[in-house]
Amino acid sequence: MRVPHWRKAAPVKIRTPLIALAATALLVAGCANEDTDTSPESAPTVTTGAAAASATADQTEAEGGGETAGAADAPTAEELQDQLTLLADPAQPIDAKVAVVENGEERRPNLEAMTAAMTNYQVGFEVTDVQAEGDTATADVAVESPHGTAAPTPWTWVEADGEWKVSDESTCALLGMARAGC
User: Any keyword Flavoprotein (predicted)?
Assistant: First the structure.
């Protein structure tokens, strides 16, 4: 029996993960900040690059502190995009991928499965609107695939040991796109 063209599995393979990704992103965005304090001190700080370092240094100095050991500058959109590109590139070593994700060693088997799945499938990313507050950064990420570009959704990164890493939630969303979920 011949399967109608609209029932072929290829379009479903990308749509289902994209729907899962969008749902995950909405869930993460909805649960990301339960802080109801609206005072100016608790308002999110939007900074990138050198401006973040200057603002952090000024704030630390004003609070009577010295140098902040191990604190990373707020990430740039380009830095975050480079991390996502590295994760989706099947030519990159698994150890490099493990190094840029939160709980990297725990996610190693998933990253290996995703790398194998991405061998003949290319995706790209457009990262915009980076916002950093403390040890968390959020950015809008549009995933580009052969089937088109998905609407941007918020992804998160965490600062660990002076380096920005893709958060576990965002890593799991990316892994889910390749059916290598957490």
Answer: no
